[in-house]
Amino acid sequence: MPTAGRHCMIELWGCPARAIDDPQTVREAMLAAIAASKSTLLSECAHRFAPQGVTIVGLLAESHISIHTWPEHGYVAADVFTCGEHGEPEAACLELARVLGATRHELRTIERGHPGGLAHAVAERSG
Amino acid sequence: MPTAGRHCMIELWGCPARAIDDPQTVREAMLAAIAASKSTLLSECAHRFAPQGVTIVGLLAESHISIHTWPEHGYVAADVFTCGEHGEPEAACLELARVLGATRHELRTIERGHPGGLAHAVAERSG
Fold first, then answer.
1. Is the ipTM above a cut-off of 0.85?
2. Can you list the alpha helix ranges (DSSP code H) found in chain A?
């Protein structure tokens, strides 16, 4: 089969706790990331944990986006998977880093749908 | 910070097209996987694409699960992320392989929340 798509994982550190503990801020970051990747949101689920932390997952016409926050550590784990050739999941991840105010990030992209593909990054970036 | 959790990606091949094009079958596979990983489903979003293909994403108390199917290729891309020490995301992935009738799979686990962690598998398995 052709490549199913690109799956990016990003680690964000140094995010302001107040921002990433606010469901509305995290949702706005998700929407900005989806716009940056030229993807389409079909539906979403969100949850605010007690005493802190937010998860939001978005079902995309092109696959999915997830954002999980640990305000107590200024840390966010996110992933963006876009099927086909036209999505820009790396752009989505970097937009998350920008909007959520990360001072440091690590990004890794893998191609899904290829035998052996999980083990090889097609893009790696940190900043 | 301590490890945020383990994030598993699994590729499934050889899945019967009829099974993986049926939203109910895919949802039941998700529920079985969540049970296998001892996780808790908080909410979910699902979509059936035209002419074929299903996406379901589940928001877990422990992070998320996603399943994307390509019936025309007998292929499924899934991921399971469980935060903390007690989730068993590998068990969830292997349960998906079993329930969806994959003839071949590849699984890779990474630890989230560690600098440099995206580049190193903590578990890799195929079968």
1. yes
2. 17-20, 23-36, 89-99
Interchain pair A42, B42: CB under 8 A = no
Residues of B in contact with A45 (CB under 8 A): 42-45, 57-59
Interface of B with A in 8-37 (CB under 8 A): 9, 11, 13
Residues B93, B78: Cα–Cα separation, whole Å: 8
What does the pLDDT look like over B20-54, one tens digit per residue? 999 999 999 999 999 999 999 999 999 999 999 99
The pLDDT of A44-66, averaged and rounded, is 97
Which of B45, B118, B120, B125 would best serve as a mutation to test chain A binding (most A beta carbons within 10 A)?
Answer: B118
Residue A63 annotated as catalytic: yes
CB contact burial B17-46 (16+ within 10 A = b; e otherwise): eebbbbeebbbebbebbbebbebeebebbb
How far is the first Cα of chain B from the last one, in angstroms, to the nearest whole number?
Answer: 34
Spatial strand order of the sheet with A5-13 comes to A41-48, A54-60, A63-70, A75-83, A5-13, A104-112, A121-126
User: Count of CB contacts below 8 A, A vs B?
Assistant: 128
The two tokens of residue A26 are: 């995290």
Question: Which is catalytic among the residues A68, A93, A114, A126?
Answer: A68
Instruction: Round to whole Å and give the CA distance between A98 and B37.
Output: 33
CA distances from residue A84 to A54, A81, A87, A108, B104 in whole angstroms, order as listed = 29, 10, 7, 18, 22
pLDDT at res. B83: 92
> What's this model's pTM, rounded to 2 decimal places?
0.96
Average pLDDT on B99-120 reads: 94
